[in-house]
Amino acid sequence: MATTNDRFLLGTRKGLFDVRRQGGAWALGEPRLPGQTIAFAVRDPRSSSVWASLDHGHWGAKLARSDDDGATFEKTAPPTYPEHTGASAKYYWVIEPGPADRPGHVWIGTDPGGLFRSEDGGATWSLDEALWALRKEHAWQGGGRGEAGIHSICFDPRDARHAYVGISCAGVLETKDDGASWSYVNKGLVNVFDPGSTTDYGHDPHCVVIAPSKPDVLWQANHCGVFKSADGAATWQNLTQKPWIDFGFTVAVHPTNHDRAWLVPLKSDEVRTTVDGRLAVARTDDGGATWDLFREGFPSPAYDFPFRHALDVGADGDTLALATTSGNLYVSEDGGVTWATVSTSLPPVYSVRFA
Fold first, then answer.
1. Least enclosed by CB within 10 Å: which of 11, 70, 194, 328?
2. pLDDT band at 3 (very low <50, low <70, confident <90, very high)
3. What per-residue confidence (pLDDT) applies to 141?
4. What CATH number is associated with residue 167?
5. What does the alpha-carbon distance between residue 35 and residue 142 come to, in Å, rounded to a whole number?
6. How confident is residue 24, by pLDDT bands cut at 50, 70 and 90?
7. Which long-range contacts (CB under 8 A, 24 or more apart) does 13-16 make?
8. Does the residue 48 lie in any domain?
9. How many CB atoms lie within 10 A of CB 102?
10. Distance (Å, rounded) from C-alpha 227 to C-alpha 234?
11. DSSP state of 10
12. 228 neighbors 217 (Cβ within 8 angstroms)
């Protein structure tokens, strides 16, 4: 079986691609679920199953699962909102397999802001009612898709009952009791939409990741800047350094070095393209105090960029994959310093996850 440095999954507008390192080169497999928009795809390391969320547009959000490590897929019953909510799933933003000691545990974050959980490998699903109650109470507003969206789920590897979710536009929320209750953990975040607000909610994280080697450290690419927490999200430090370390959608953290993280800088909410027309990856090795910009291997000029789930790092911490809105796929094998082009002719890419 391939290691988590030698294989990754691409969710694209026209199918799911399995990319593997073969003889020192990276090769694209034939698309699975061809012609279908794959909003997110992930391999469950506990079972070798592969999950894919499908955005059918006219036909709505669907789920597919492979029980043979991605060779074939079958449609599977997706989570549905209880009748009392009056809601329906419009988009499955993220699928997160649970902790290693819970083999059937899977969480799914949705638009319009509901978190669904399964404890039997997706045979049945339940809405996290405590989190949904907060959505209703505080009238979470939407981000880019118009409604609130749960796009980031972070499990604490030390405690299966402890997790965080990132929600556009609510912020980061934390549970310490397996979803029975939730609290906002947004102290220190900036909200340019409502600068005088004193509420804990209404923030717009684009992507939130937890450092596996030190789970009290979390990184966040936010609509209003770049932030890091070193105290389990109790407080957030603003790391923004305009123009490069500012607006962006994606962030990745090294698997064994909590001080090393990567961003892809973009220019402002209004522009939403690369800074000065130059695609670059920014890396910090000192917890965000300083950043280096790496461009070697990228075309210039370049105006496309990765969506929030389209940057990932392998288990070795040196292999990274990045794919863009224009279907360009790049891989780095030296920690993001240099990049090699794997393809320039893919459909638009929505997610990249090492498998």
1. 194
2. low
3. 85
4. 2.130.10.10
5. 28
6. confident
7. 13/37, 13/38, 13/347, 13/348, 13/349, 13/350, 14/347, 15/347, 16/41, 16/52, 16/70, 16/73
8. yes
9. 14
10. 12
11. E
12. yes
